[in-house]
Amino acid sequence: MARKRVSVTRETPSGRNIEYRDNYNGNIMNRPEFVRQIRQGSYDNDNYHVRLIDGIPTPCSNPDNSKNNNLG
Q: Can you tell me the distance from the alpha carbon of 56 to that of 30, in angstroms, rounded to the nearest whole number?
């Protein structure tokens, strides 16, 4: 089984994801950095997209049957 491309490494007390780790290259990103990378096409748009949640651009994994690409 392949490892997740991106994992959440830090959340706020309310559960909002605020820090992410690219498990392929070790890069640590905050939420705005990961949003920017997704929008620039650095991460496969088949797996990740940006959604506005409470007015905040938020990285999300696309729904599918695989747990390998889920954030969290």
A: 13
17 closest CA partner among 69, 60, 67: 60
Sign of CA dihedral 2, 24, 6, 17: positive
| 44 inside domain | yes
Q: Give a yes or no: residue 72 inside a domain.
A: no
Tally the domains of the chain: 1
Predicted TM-score (pTM) of this structure: 0.83
The predicted-structure confidence for 34-66, as pLDDT tens digits, reads as follows 999 999 999 977 789 999 999 999 999 887 666
Question: Is the residue at 34 inside a domain?
Answer: yes
